[in-house]
Structures are given as C-alpha cells and as structure tokens.
Design goal:
globular; 6-stranded mixed β-sheet; about 35% strand
C-alpha cells in the first residue's frame, strides 16, 4: 500500500520537470545569441591609438558594385568619413547603398603602422562598404589596426558614436564606429529576453501551484 507521503514524493519530480525544462530554455536565450553587428572601437592605449573591429555584416539591402584588389588598408580619413580596417592589401567586394555620417572629425589621411585580420572598409555613403571577397552575410569578422605615437587629436578624430545603416535597418544591417571606447548599447535585446523569461516563469509557477 502506498501512503500519501510516498505519493507526494513521487509527484514532486513531475511538477519540477516543466520548471526545470523552462529554466534550461530561458538560459539558452542568453547563451546562444546572434553575432553583434560589425563595430569598430577606437581607444587610446598608452602612446598609441588602437582600432579594433568585430562582428558580422548582413549584405541584404546593399548593391553589389564590383570585385577588386583593395590597397592602402588601415586608414582613417575622418573628414571624408573613411574607415579602413585590416591589412594593407586584400581581395574585396564593393557594395553601396548605405546612409549615415559623412565625417567623424577633421583629420586627413593617416595610415596605420600595423594592421591585421579581415579587410572591412566604410567610406562616406556615396562610396559604400568594402568586405573580403566572397564574404557571406552573417560571418564573423575581426580586424585590428594600430597608429603608433598618435592621439585622437593628432588623427583628427572626434570622440563619439557614429552609425551607418542600410536596407530596413534589421539585424547586422549597420556599421558602428565608437571613438573613445564607449560601450555599445544592445538595443534592449537582453532586457527584453529577461522580461519574457521572468513572465513565463511566473505563469508556469502559478499553474504548478494549482
């Protein structure tokens, strides 16, 4: 004969199972997130200015122009709105169709002393976006450039956050330049996910307590 205490102990895991599964699903929302849009962060590190680019690009909404060989990579020309990240030469694809700032300072042409990673160049909206040849939308990109014995002032860079967009402004249809190392806002994605998870958890607990 099974007493009430034994039945209660057997029923408990069944009640906890949906709660456990929900917790796992909610946690996965934060562990598996799409790649952040390509962002260049420019910082003063010691005597040098270092620019680091990371993220993915969605080419949807851009117009393919031509494949070519890019030369003179690793450049800032703030007065003309030109950012070129990565090595000095690379095979590239050129697109246009972007909108955004036409400058981010008063500086002329300054070549980096060292550059590495993926070639990614953004020029003023009329010239567009250059990416590695054969680039597939959503693929992670990583670039780095260093200007030795330089400052924001000597390169003519105005600190702040600058953003270019294209298409319908959806996921990864933007390019962000941050001069000064300010943190990129996540657009409320993390907060929204947390709110949904907490709401779902409250509803589930109410059902289990009935």
């Amino acid at each position: 004969m099974v007493n009430a205490r034994t039945m209660g102990m057997r029923a408990l895991p069944k009640k906890l199972l949906p709660l456990t599964l929900f917790a796992i699903a909610a946690t996965s929302l934060f562990c598996v997130r799409p790649a952040q849009a390509y962002t260049v962060t420019v910082e003063q590190i010691g005597a040098n200015v270092v620019a680091t680019g990371n993220g993915a690009i969605n080419l949807t909404g851009l117009n393919f122009i031509i494949s070519a060989i890019g030369v003179d990579g690793g450049v800032f020309e703030a007065s003309q709105g030109i950012i070129s990240m990565g090595p000095s030469t690379a095979n590239i694809d050129i697109y246009n169709g972007i909108t955004g700032p036409t400058s981010f300072g008063s500086g002329g042409v300054f070549f980096a002393n060292f550059g590495s990673g993926d070639w990614v160049t953004l020029q003023d909206p009329s010239s567009g976006l250059w990416v590695p040849q054969g680039y597939v939308s959503g693929t992670a990109l990583s670039s780095s450039d260093t200007w030795n014995n330089a400052t924001f002032a000597s390169l003519g860079l105005t600190p702040g956050t600058y953003e270019w967009t294209w298409g319908n402004g959806g996921a990864n249809q933007n390019f962000t330049l941050i001069i000064g190392g300010t943190t990129v806002p996540d657009g409320g994605t993390t907060i929204s996910l947390l709110g949904c998870a907490l709401l779902g958890l409250a509803v589930l607990r109410r059902k289990l307590n009935r």
